[in-house]
Design a protein that fits this description.
single chain, 599 residues, alpha/beta, Ubiquitin-like (UB roll), Alpha-Beta Plaits, Rossmann fold, 3 domains, 5-stranded mixed beta sheet, 4-stranded parallel beta sheet
Length: 599
């Protein structure tokens, strides 16, 4: 079928909306609530207004929302008429009527879709500003993500991504009228949520500053500028292929060596690579898998380096706790070794060391606060900055990543980074890195093809069979996105999934699309493919591509830990989990009344 948008002929299929067809044709229509990658078109913001003539017969023109209006044969659509622009300006003005306009303190300062729309529709003197402003809840109780309902525009994107992509439904729309805004389902405080896993995907889709990471930049600056404190900063593999988006580098480009320079200019005493700890994770996790295969207990073993997934198990599926690997994440391992082996090697007082981790993940902030990852009240990881926080910190001190020279890691050890450690940043990477080492541990031979293609890709579930020689063949699986994980768990319960080893990543695509990465306006997961390609390119170019061949890892075990799963390794590199599932809270009469009133 055919229609016309701004006098451009468009072919479309039955049921396709004006907004979908326009987007496909590269015709921009402003919107806040409609989010096409999620197929989320509630029509609540009323911004995607267009003028239509329903047929070729010259029927009466109408102003409609493009996201809820299906195209029909012969329809003519105009997006820029004087009347369209007038009603769009009026609609933006009313959105600002109860919006907190303290932009300078907003997490989305300079990157706000509401500001963009005001510019797009030509809004100048807005007499509606603050007309209905009233205090709505803000919530800093959670360690990973914060909420400021005063900046909520009620678009529903966050609710949709939590419900459809993560399958959790931890967010809701609280209250009614101008008092309504994003809320936490079943809890008054975010920290008390029995559902939220702090993955941060909601912060990636929020068009304003209503949802953001729990900012810790000030504390980081305090430590980086304190001469009495020795700061050790390490960054995850995904950071190097995502931070460049903020500075105009090509999507997926490796900015590793420029990040090192930037951190030294900020005052970091030591800059290291978290990939080194990823190799240690593989040594411990791989050995743990072999022990479980031998005993037949705790199978299938499931990876534990994703804190959003760990929270998911503890809060929603505690029956799987025994299946989680006890091996810490690379961040947890690095923090533990910084306060022990690193401190000893450098003659430093652990009490004066501050380990700052740069992560693509808001849930890593939550992980750092876990009581199991501390010694004598001293956290192993002192502070976590997301990619977005790191970008703001660089902007704050006028550091342009694109103009910096390259630098190398300055620590005399913990400097080697393998391809195996790098691929931790993408879904399937932990599995692939583990198989490279487990295969060698059993057979004494390297995998014939180091790139284990069977576990790569973006399919929600990937399966493979691996021949471990005398150990026989094992079945492995890779899954990403928690809504998909829930499907896999259901299959396991029904006896339809017979695996021995499963990798799970909470965020779709893995860490390269984590909740703390740089946000893309109007396009969720826009750079997912390029970022993954960047990670695999790093792996391919590394001279060492297996964790067990990392000379610094070999030295660690020779001089300090003895062997994987030794008593010292168990003490420093492993952890435990606890059942945090709570019974559903009974609704109050007031809550039931509100539901009835809202229909």
């Amino acid at each position: 079928m055919k229609a016309w948008i701004n006098d451009i002929e468009i072919e479309f299929t039955e049921g396709e909306t004006v907004l979908q067809a326009a987007s496909r044709a590269g015709i921009f229509i402003p919107t806040l609530c409609a989010f096409l990658p999620l197929d989320h078109t509630p029509g609540t913001c009323r911004m995607c207004l267009v003028e239509i003539s329903p047929g070729a017969d010259g029927s009466e023109k109408q102003i409609v929302t493009a996201c809820t209006t299906p195209l029909v044969e012969g329809m003519r659509v105009q997006t820029r008429t004087a009347e369209v622009r007038r009603v769009q300006r009026m609609q933006v003005a009313w959105i600002f009527a109860d919006h907190d306009q303290d932009c300078a303190s907003c997490a989305r300062y300079g990157n706000c879709e509401l500001q963009d729309l005001a510019l797009y529709v030509g809004l100048r003197d807005n007499t509606c500003n603050g007309r209905f402003t009233q205090k709505r809840p803000d919530d800093w109780s959670a360690t990973g993500v914060v909420r400021d309902a005063n900046k909520c525009v009620r678009c529903g994107r966050c609710i949709e991504v939590c419900r459809r992509v993560q399958g959790i439904s931890a967010l809701t729309l609280d209250d009614i009228g101008t008092a309504s805004g994003v809320g936490v389902a079943g809890a008054k405080r975010w920290a008390d949520s029995s559902l939220c896993v702090q993955c941060g995907q909601c912060t990636l889709v929020c068009p304003t500053g209503a949802l953001s990471e729990h900012d810790q930049i000030e504390k980081a600056v305090d430590w980086l500028s304190d001469s009495d404190i020795k700061t050790v900063v390490a960054f995850a593999p995904a950071v190097r292929v995502t931070i460049g988006d903020e500075f105009g580098l090509p999507a997926g480009q490796n900015a590793e060596k420029k990040i090192i320079t930037a951190l030294k200019r900020l005052g970091a005493d030591f800059v290291c690579d978290i990939n080194w700890a990823a190799d240690v994770t593989i040594m411990e996790e791989g050995t743990e898998l072999l022990h479980r295969l031998e005993s037949g207990k705790g199978l299938p073993m499931m990876t534990s380096c994703c804190p959003g997934w760990v929270n998911f198990v503890e809060k929603l599926h505690p029956e799987l706790i025994e299946n989680l690997s006890s091996t810490r994440s690379p961040q947890g391992i690095f923090g533990s070794l910084v306060k022990t082996w690193f401190a000893k090697e450098h003659g430093l007082d652990p009490a004066k060391i501050r380990f700052i981790s740069l992560m693509p993940c808001t849930a890593k902030k939550d992980e750092a606060a876990r009581e199991q990852l501390a010694k004598d009240g001293m956290p192993d990881t002192d502070l976590v900055l997301t990619v977005r926080e790191f970008a703001r910190l660089l902007h704050r001190y006028g550091i342009d990543l694109t103009t910096l020279p390259d630098s190398d890691y300055d620590s005399p050890f913990m400097t080697q980074n393998t391809g195996a450690g790098a691929i931790f940043g993408v879904t399937g990477g932990v599995m692939e890195a583990a198989l490279r080492t487990v295969h060698h541990a059993v057979t004494g031979k390297e995998l014939e093809h180091v790139a284990f293609e069977a576990v790569r890709g973006q399919d929600w579930l990937r399966e493979a069979e691996v021949d471990l020689g005398a150990k026989g063949k094992i079945k492995v699986a890779v899954v990403h996105g928690l809504a998909n994980v829930a499907q896999l768990i259901e299959r396991m319960k029904n006896g339809q999934a017979d695996y021995q080893f499963i990798e799970v990543m909470a965020c779709p695509g893995g860490c390269v699309d984590g909740g703390g990465t740089v946000r893309s306006k109007f396009n969720y997961l826009q750079f997912a493919k390029k970022r993954a390609e960047g990670i695999y390119d790093i792996d391919e170019k590394r001279p060492i591509r297996q964790s067990h061949n990392n000379p610094d890892v070999v030295r660690l075990y020779k001089e300090f830990l003895d062997k994987p799963l030794s008593c010292k390794a168990e003490e420093l590199l492993h952890t435990s989990y606890k059942d945090r599932k709570v019974a559903p809270r009974r609704r109050t009469i007031t809550e039931i009344w509100r539901e009835v009133k809202l229909g």
